[in-house]
Amino acid sequence: MCLGIPGRVTETFLQHEVLMGKVDFGGVSKQVCLNLTPEVEVGQYVIVHVGFALQVIDEAEAEKVFEFLRNMDDLEELDTDQSDSKLESTL
Q1: 10-residue block means of pLDDT along the chain (91 residues)?
Q2: Do you know which NCBIfam families this protein is assigned to (predicted)?
Q3: In CATH, what number is assigned to the domain containing residue 13?
């Protein structure tokens, strides 16, 4: 399974004739190839996978993905709590 993460484009520039940009992922900025999304503008959101922006999305869709990812993290914490409870009950 491949996971694309939404981020907000904060800057665009050309590097060796390739459209690149800085994308903010909730406070962490990364350099991303924007060549597959040449229509993207600063302030818009993109789905990024392994350093490539694959699709431009609107802010509402980006927020849905952020919420989904937050919920996944909550589920992982539940699994950890259950494992700890099982461990304690065997002691």
Answers
A1: 86 97 94 98 96 96 87 65 49 51
A2: hypC_hupF
A3: 2.30.30.140
